[in-house]
Amino acid sequence: MTWTYPDNEQVRCGIPFNGVLPLWHSDGTITWHASRDESIRFDELVNIGLLTWEEGATPLPSGFSERWEIAELTNNGMTLILRAVDAHAQAALGDHGNGRRISLREPMTYEEAMGQEFDANSFAIHCARIMLRLARDHGVGLINLRFPREKDPAPIVSMSAASDAHGMMTFDVGTQLDVDAPEWKDAQKHGAMNMLMIQRPYSSLIDRSTQALDAAALVELAQPVVRAAIQPGFPFALGLATMLPTI
Fold first, then answer.
1. 17: nearest Cα among 2, 36, 5, 32
2. What pLDDT is stored for residue 190 in this prediction?
3. Which terminal residue of the chain has fewer beta carbons within 10 Å of its beta carbon, N or C?
4. Cα gap 49→45, rounded to integer Å
């Protein structure tokens, strides 16, 4: 497939999967990209509060903003520039002041991006990292599905999160979908929404032998979110908006 890109195009970063980053273009299209450097993991760079963002159009209460992480696509779509949102994020992102430049392979179709198998565990770990960021910042995350040529995505999963002084995290996960999964058997109906409350102490996610986040615990934490997000069958067309306090 041949794509033609405008110079220095601003794009929104979708939710990565299988090592591939979906990029949302302003005309309603999505393109799928992998790094030439296989050591670069997009799921460690995007959707977790490191990147600059643009404000969304959703009306929110005073003191909150809707944020979509953005990047710059240049060199006819062969280079992606990620810019850190602040000085703290610069170190984590590897942005030394002019953005982190990532050389991309030729864009692929969504079938090529999906490959033979969807890596559900890596996707779940990324969703768990998003949840942890929301709990830290007392924010709301909205996973959206973008249909072809539709500029306005459809929200499918909401995540409201908070944490207390003792490290107890609370997540209120909601969807209008009837999710056919055991993780949703205790969901409560609130109008058109199916709501599920998850509570976990942060300490339960730590591997005591390494003092690092435990991958299996992260996968388990995120399962309700993952089950709802992929139920429509389009994990290659998902994006994330976050609603966070402005102060």
1. 32
2. 95
3. C
4. 9
